[in-house]
Write a structure and sequence with these properties.
CATH class of the largest domain: Alpha Beta
Oligomer: single chain
Order of helices and strands: HEHEHEHHEHHHHEEHHEEE
Strand content: 5-15%
CATH superfamily of the largest domain: HUPs
Distance between the termini: 29 Å
Largest sheet: 4 strands, parallel
């Protein structure tokens, strides 16, 4: 259980401006927990403003999760299409692609809100390669969890305290564009194919923490270590058949590996964390 003193620190940060903020909620555990906790702070008689971006890079289960939670917690939900896929800087998939995604996101949110905008970024993100944080800085976005010096582990504890149940153990899942090796152009068709494979694999492994990486015309299926050990040959064959059906590639180009952060992104011979 999270210490009351730490909860109070988060609460004071959220209440700092004494106005209900707009929270950018991706559907991941960080931003969801921030939105739910903000709901409790402002009580149910005040609607928390939530923005959720949809697009080819956003898995449909993330959007469905946000819609379900919005009904439960009575959020003032605005579904937005930031259309970053039409931004040639983003579509080119440079190493700082996330900057252009977040730049489009915050610019869109600011067209309909004048108050504070919160993100669910946490302290652990500062140790990773996060170009989106640079876009947030330029847009004057606040990060309550970073200000409170809270990382993912504490956020999961808070989510559990809030009664979010299984959601508190929701695996991290960056947008689908993060599955594409840097330099390979991002297209809706490519992202849709990756999404189809990942959703299929999750039906076999009960929402396992997986990544389907498109790298140099190879499909790399990554499982976290415990699940990788569970994958038997018949299951591999099912997955390979699905990849061949969707991507029309040779079986030799499908590989199974342990999930490691950053394995799809290389800049100046250094792996980048995603």
């Amino acid at each position: 259980m999270l210490q009351p003193e730490l909860k109070k620190i988060i609460e004071n940060i959220i209440l700092k401006e004494n106005v209900i903020p707009t929270i950018a909620v991706s559907g991941g555990i960080d931003s969801v927990t921030l939105a739910v906790y903000t709901s409790y702070i402002f009580k149910k008689n005040k609607k928390v403003k939530v923005s959720h971006a949809i697009g080819p890079a956003v898995p449909i289960e993330a959007t469905n999760r946000v819609k379900t939670l919005s009904k439960k917690y009575n959020w003032e939900l605005k579904i937005i299409n930031t259309n970053e896929i039409s931004d040639p800087r983003y579509a080119a998939n440079p190493i700082n692609r996330c900057f252009f995604c977040k730049e489009n996101l915050y610019k869109t949110i600011k067209t309909y809100t004048k108050g504070n905008i919160f993100s669910g970024a946490n302290l652990d993100d500062l140790n990773d390669f996060r170009p989106g944080l640079d876009a947030a800085k330029e847009a004057n976005i606040d990060h309550p969890f970073i200000l409170a010096k809270i990382g993912k582990k504490i956020i999961r504890e808070l989510a559990s305290d809030l009664g979010l149940g299984e959601l508190s153990e929701l695996p991290s899942s960056p947008c689908l564009a993060s599955r594409v090796e840097t330099g390979i152009p991002i297209t809706p068709v490519l992202l849709n194919k990756i999404d189809k494979i990942e959703r299929y694999i999750k039906t076999l492994f009960n929402n396992a923490d997986i990544r389907c990486r498109w790298m140099n015309a190879n499909m790399i299926i990554q499982f976290n270590y415990p699940n990788l050990k569970r994958v038997d040959n018949p299951q591999k064959k099912l997955i390979q058949d699905k990849v061949i059906e969707i991507f029309n590639i040779d079986n030799s180009k499908i590989k199974f590996k342990e999930y490691k952060k950053g394995s799809a992104f290389v800049a100046k011979n250094k792996e980048i964390t995603i």
